[in-house]
Amino acid sequence: MYKPVLVTGASSGIGEAAAVALARKGYRIFAGARRLEKLKSLEGLGQGGITAVELDVTDEGSIDAAFSAIEAEAGPVYGVVNNAGVSVMGPLEEVPTNEWRRQFETNVFGVVAVCQRALPGMRAAGAGRIVNVGSLAGRIAAPFQGAYAASKHALEGLNDSLRREVEPFGVKVSLVRPGFINTPFGNQEQEGLERYAGKGHPYAAWLGKMKAWHAKGHPSGASPMDVAEKIVHAMAAERPNSRYTVPERYIPSLILRNTMPSALTDRAFARVIGVAGVKPPAAKAQ
Ligand SMILES: NC(=O)c1ccc[n+]([C@@H]2O[C@H](COP(=O)([O-])OP(=O)(O)OC[C@H]3O[C@@H](n4cnc5c(N)ncnc54)[C@H](OP(=O)(O)O)[C@@H]3O)[C@@H](O)[C@H]2O)c1
Questions:
Q1: What is the pTM of this model?
Q2: Residue 47 belongs to some domain of the structure
Q3: CATH number of the domain enclosing 228
Q4: Is residue 145 lining ligand 1, measured as CB closer than 6 Å?
């Protein structure tokens, strides 16, 4: 009776809000993440109900086990919200390549693996929904955000390909693109930047500014429920949008990004994050 939907990364922030909002709308929610104890507090909420399911999107065995458990309890999965995400921050020059890989394992390959497990059932049913949680960073890349921005740019691309591939099978794909949202996500970003902010790091002066800008951004950001509302629309509307930007006040920046010369957007960016005119320490003579 209630359509089964898996929400990944539902132990916190946007995923938790989406699980609650979708359950209220009447979906049978399976809330997935690694921290099962955090998910347990959501169980039973909403009309459709929420069931906690242990899930690590970087582990195909864990994905398969989660899907098998859902199918045994509620039948084929109707919808997936690919929300689980991490953020690796720091200067491209200094972030170790294994950290770049960790970034892509969760934000990109995790999404691919979940879609690969979900799609055969959706195609067989002739219906399904996939909602990918991207980021404004998937279109506008701040300095020291290269790994994260690259992962979300990749998600934009795979989202478009997938939408066009599976539409003939009745499967609809949307991307929800949040800007700053008030969740604990900023904590890991602050910790990441902290590693490169100390004395002796060549980028420390700019990076300190970026860190301060980011520290203000999340607490004053929109509510995760605002994002959840768009996720519900993408799941429930007969004709979901291919993209949702949350909050919508970011849309003009996206239009400018597409139309303004890069030299101008670079200058505007430097002003926004407060690095305009900040000079690096003089390079030592070789
Ligand atoms: N907050 C923002 O300002 C913002 C802006 C743009 C985009 N986003 C995107 O929104 C999504 C959710 O972010 P949020 O702000 O809600 O952050 P959050 O509160 O830190 O939540 C992140 C969620 O991802 C889960 N997760 C991380 N790695 C996982 C893995 N390997 N397998 C399964 N789950 C995993 C975490 O659960 P466990 O640790 O329990 O596994 C947690 O539930 C992310 O994709 C993020 O990139 C956020």
A1: 0.96
A2: yes
A3: 3.40.50.720
A4: no
